[in-house]
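User: Predict the structure for this protein chain, please.
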Amino acid sequence: MNTRKIGAEKEEIACGFLTGKGVTIRERNFRCRQGEIDIIGYDGEYLVFVEVKYRKDTAKGSALEAVDIRKQQRICKVSDYYRMIHHCSFDTPIRYDVIAIDGEEIQWIKNAFEYCNRKVW
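Assistant: Here is the predicted structure, written as structure tokens:
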């Protein structure tokens, strides 16, 4: 099975997991010039941007470790664009979450990182 197909399968699992926890999914695989966000939805009043990461084992580190500062910055840039084109109010609370899937274990890290949109040299 190729990595794209595995990724789509794990994103489907993540959507089912989040929906089961009460998250309303608004969009999946939102893409723009700046990058992509796997899942966008609402958890209560929060507009949530979710990165899904999968590792079959920990040989290359955990799934959570794969969401490094550069990935976080890219997600924040894409979220800025998403909020602009959807005319989201500046008062709309936002959150950046990660669904980390290590093997068969699913972990939902709410507020996994803060907004960051500065360059790292």
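The mean pLDDT is 90.
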